Amino acid sequence: MADEAPKLFEQCRVFVVCSQELPLETAEQLAAIIEEHGGDPSIHQSGPEKFDVIECTHIVSSTIQFPSYDYFSNALIPVVKPSWVHASLSKHKLANPRQHSPDPRLFLNDVVVTCGDIPEGDKDAIIGGVLAKGGLYSPRVTGMVTHLVDLTENSDKARMVKIKGMRVKIVLPHWFDDCLKLGHRIDERPYMLPDPEILRAGPDDPIRWSENKDVAGASTPAPSAMPTPGKLNQPSVFEGKSVMLSKDLGIGSHLQQSIEAVLTRGGCSMTRNVDEADWVVCRFRDGFVYRTASRLDKVVGNLAWLYYLMTFNTYTRPLSRPLHYPVSRTPIPGFAGLKISLSNYVGEARIYLENLIAASGAECTKTLRQENTHLITAHGTSEKCNAAKEWGLEVVNHLWLEDSYAKWKEQPVSDPRYTHFPSRTNLSDVVGQKMLDHDVLEENFFPSTDAEAEPVFLPQAMQTKDQNAIARPLAGKSDQEEAKDSEATHDTPQPTGKKPRRPSENKKLQTPVRSRLIPENKENETPSSTSSRKSKDAATARLHDLAPDLALYEKERKRVGGVIYGGRRKSDEDRVDMTKNQKKRRSAEPQDESDDEQMTDAKRQKRTRPPISMHLLITGYQKWVGHEKTEDADKRHLRELGIMVVQDARRCTHLAAPAILRTTKFVNALAYAPQIVSTEFITSCLKQDKLLNPSDFPLVDKAAETKFQFSLETAVGKAKANRNKLLNGFRVYCVEDIRGGFDAFKSIVETNGGECLLFRGRLALAKNSRREESDDEDSDMDGDEPGRNEVFLLSSVEPRHARLWPRFRQVAEDIKKTPRIVRVDWLLDIAMSQELRAAGDYEVTEEMVEAVDE
């Protein structure tokens, strides 16, 4: 029999990272798709850990704002948006990760462009620029296209867009020209046909500006007051983290106690040991704490960054906003003595630039005088701009300041990027989008003392050992010695130990009109140095030398009792030289060595993975509550036993729960008549490492059956007979803010064949229900059963809900239906028992509301 065709994601170990843009429910759907097509997914709500790098091939995330992004990026593991999964499926091959990167530096990653009647040279340049900055090109006008580049609305493609009413923005080529010159995406409205503003506006017409959200909460490195923490509608961003507040913050004991109280309430632990901290908060880019934390690859931010997390309860990388990272006591080389003034920047963007000038070591002046050296302006039309040109001052945009700060080196003002001002754009809109470069920071502020100071990709236990070795030589030094060391390392920057980036990232874009579209010095070009490359080679060589010890370490780790005192060393007399034995085997018996012995444990397990024997939906499993890593590991273990854990009730063949629950998962799954087992089944399978008979673990909960007046076994039998048509023809309405949520009750009604709608009291009810429109002969209901001529409203007895009841009764009577206002228990009891129940026992009245008020 021919071998089964390989599945698309068969060689992929995918980590799905949850965020505000990618909620848990969506992440579970993506994981199910990846699993279905042969992949091995796992879901991470706070981002994967660094030691998971050896297990991962792809990371799916809608943002780069998770703690270990830099680590995985340096390990050359692609981080892609969810669109990568769908694009790969549509193409039947893995899509290019670069075209689906969430990195904001690829500022055209949401653009799908097609070209109309424009010159061929401009067309090639635009396509090349869009592809280089993360966008896509389509030769035809399809539903995926977001922008049509054209000179007129009379072209064939433009007419097609108008006729079909497509949501495609028709823009002039000038928009791409300005975006690529600046290295940022600007507002396309001034460039849109049929009446582009850049062609009709006068030179003195005011230029619109909008509030910049990129600098919200990140406009100052030293906030004056502690913010009021926002309400937590989700798990705290500090949950499970260990935070260290450095002494150089210079805050009083009362403020420090207040900060620690907020962090502790969020599930965070405080520490005074930099080795134990996950996040380190400090003010300056010097001192033992800062350098040690940076060398150990901790998350290092300042007080403004910490306050931002407290306010918005959303993780953001300190490097993504310049003033969320500690500042330097010394100015940027070349910035001492500069006097800089600002023009045309407004709102918080102006405050951000004033603080960035101060952080760079220059002086920011409110007024422009002849002694000023630079004027930073958002556009080229103002009195200050005219005066600066007359006095011979340097007139640049804010990109010059941000690039100088990020690269810690004064950038030449002759670069066209810094002197380009789009005619109808206020550059305040793109302030604060520049990210700091870790390599530059390392070279200037925490250079490694040797190649071993940078952790290489070792097991977690060995990383800890190496990291402690870094901290020990520094711990006993005085401030004087530490300052000497700092001066010495600044004079001779030492290399890093990180892997080199892809060569393609450093290639310059070339198109037929390169000089017009693409400046010579690209903003996002990844800096690299000769010393850095040498260090990376040294780290690789060191890892190669450690390979025998790593292999022995892994072997001894599997012993009963574990590794004693770190295992044997290479110099031990009784150590077996595995390298020599392996060489002898290769030369003497080249055909006897199995390929499986060279595979990692993950690959070996993957090749022997059994077929899926059950799709299991799990609810209420307490072992996994608050233990994300345990849950991921157990799900992988269950999959190795032939059990696929699913989140969709429609796919489940088995349901596991500790008791009869009224959760959405349990109630919805019951309608599909799965085999219901106790969660002891999961525990036993994991403990015995084999697939057990689920019939030996039936769910028995007599107390709940008595309470809810139904039999679980009978309900499953009725669910098989109902075939998800129990509520066929029922129309159920629900008040907007019902306890439990409208979406939960909507899914229950629709799972059982009914229709659920939101009722706000402003709309009339539809006249025809599904029952009246359907001729389904398979329906088990007849005209005498409850619900035939009734409409239902799920409500509580709260006064705000009772105000909607008269309107509901009125519109129900208008369509000649009997209104029934019932508690949610009516729906839950029907769904749990899988039999219809009269609404009379569940109805609520105005008398009940009055009783509640009394």
TrEMBL record:
Protein name: BRCT domain-containing protein
Annotated stretches, region: Disordered: 209-233, 473-540, 571-611
Alphabetized Pfam families for the sequence: BRCT_2, PTCB-BRCT, RTT107_BRCT_5
GO biological process, one term: double-strand break repair
PANTHER family: REGULATOR OF TY1 TRANSPOSITION PROTEIN 107
Biased composition (Basic and acidic residues): 478-490, 571-580
Organism of derivation: Penicillium argentinense
Superkingdom: Eukaryota
Stretches with biased composition (Acidic residues): 590-599
Taxonomic lineage from the root: Eukaryota, Fungi, Dikarya, Ascomycota, Pezizomycotina
Occurrences of domain BRCT (ranges): 4-102, 102-193, 335-418, 613-699
Biased composition (Low complexity): 216-230
